[in-house]
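Form 7-S
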Amino acid sequence: MSSLRFFTGDANGLLKSIALPLNSPTDDVAPRQLLLAGNPPLAKEREVQRLAWNSETKQLVVARANMSVEVLSVTDEDPELERGKGVTVETVLQYTEDRPSSSAKGDAFVGLDQLSNNILTCTSSGLLRFQPTLSASSISTPTLLSLSSRLSELRLSPNQASFAYGGNEVDLSLWDVERAGQGAPTEGASGAPGDEGLTGKEAKKLRKAKAQELLWGEVWRAKNLPNDSLSLRVPIHITSLAYLSASLAPAQATLVTGNANGSVRLYDTRAARRPVGVWDKIVREGSVRRVEKGAGEHEVFVCDDRSNLFTVDTRNGNVLGNHKGLAGSISSLASTSRTASAPSYLASASLDRFVRLHTAPSAPVKAGQNATTKGETLCKVFVKSQPTAIVWDGVVPKPVAAGTAKRGRDADAAEEGEDESEGELDEVFEGMGEVVGREMEVRRKDDGRRVRPKRR
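Output:
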């Protein structure tokens, strides 16, 4: 059976391996979920906030609400892609990050990824950490960097050359991973000119120029939109971001952000500091909760804080499709890759405690055309507690004959359903007696119901 496997973490701190079939689920073929070994007792403070998966090393990185980070090695007991029947989990590395007392309350992980020799983590207070993973027996000294506070999300580029972050009154910023991993320099600030002896206007101009300067390791910073029609400043509140493309040069990338006012913005660092696309009519009510790049070149998934999931064409901001059947707000998304033999899929983890597998509509060849296919929900599985994070294991399933098995099972199920329903109706009618004429009127009078007089 062809299936896709995802790893999920929930609000109670549990980790699960979920195998979702690509065909329509039946009694014999159903989604399988397996609780990973070594899970602690249910605890709210061990809520899983972020997950990261490394397909090469087969390691799962977990960031929890109590600021602990775990690196788990996952091995399948059945190597023939019947995943979900047996998984062996071994703890490779485990440590707890120190938090300043001022930011301990309400601090959460907003970024997590695994580099070649480091674990990259970032908290909402702006504490960036490069934790070496060369030695599993002892915890090596990490490299720390202080970023802006009130962050919402930090993402690593696909080629691991740069990372980007944004947040509440923190505009999109792009950083060089190599320079940031070396740490900020300890000297050089003493030679900077101060504002002593300057007039008020000169000091204000100097402070404004300093605010525009890039920080150590920062290679690009976005610029806010112009004031609105009432000459009011447009607030900055990025809730989610995703890389669409990235080059080997850290300063060259294309990114998309979701914002608290419901707008989706497209940035091309090679073109301008301001967004090259602003789309305000995708999410009409509420804010954008998550954005995720699709497998196609011009596809991005956008979900709001209600229960809507959209597929958007990044060339013009048109909505290619809206996935139906969602009853809760989506907390995390995981997109699969697209190959010549297998289409792309999308997995969503929702607050209604369901994990769903969706088909992803393909973007048209030319911008402005309608999508060639529509997205639909293939299957879903109930996970008992609210899932907070989901990642794909990166294994491309075997190709499935398009629609043949599904149509055969649907036809069989329909025939069986018709036969069963007809048999049940026959039994009901056989057990009923025949009531006609005067006897019907007597029964109605005994029941106290009104009898319509006969017409003459």
